[in-house]
Design brief:
Number of strands: 9
Protein name: AstE/AspA barrel-sandwich hybrid domain-containing protein
Distance between the termini: 20 Å
Helix content: 10-25%
Low-confidence stretches: none
Strand content: 35-45%
InterPro entries: AspA/AstE_fam (IPR050178), Aste_AspA_hybrid_dom (IPR007036)
Length: 124
């Protein structure tokens, strides 16, 4: 509903001739082109997303954070080099963690960078 409320308010301000603009900023997540597959032996998965990461979309991943747990209980951790994270990204964030729609594409999670976008909006 928030989007429709914004559009309605914006349209009202345009109709009233309001020239006042306000600068606002918000977080923006962008793909860095790296996705991480579930741990596998051949084609068969041998683990699942670690419970500490499950449900944690937009969480910053740090070197050594647990990201998977094998079916026999072994933790598998995040390793920037092994997961081919380009060096220019100091911080990376997990997104689409354990999304069912990506399972057949062999994507357990995708990595994102985070920045800020600034734009102007009409103000009353």
């Amino acid at each position: 509903m928030a989007l429709l409320d914004y559009v309605e308010k914006h349209n009202s301000l345009v109709a009233s001739g309001s020239p006042t603009r306000q600068e606002v900023s918000m977080k923006v997540f962008r793909s860095i082109g790296v996705s991480i597959d579930y741990p596998r032996a051949g084609e068969d998965p041998v683990g699942h997303v670690h419970p500490a990461l499950q449900g944690q979309d937009f969480r910053e991943l740090q070197e050594g954070d647990p990201i998977f747990m094998t079916f026999d209980g072994e933790e598998m951790t995040f390793d920037r080099k092994a997961h081919k994270v380009p060096e220019k990204y100091e911080r990376v964030y997990a997104l689409f963690v354990n999304e069912a729609a990506y399972y057949e594409k062999k994507v357990a999670l995708m990595l994102m960078s985070c920045g800020e976008a600034t734009f102007s909006k009409l103000a009353s």
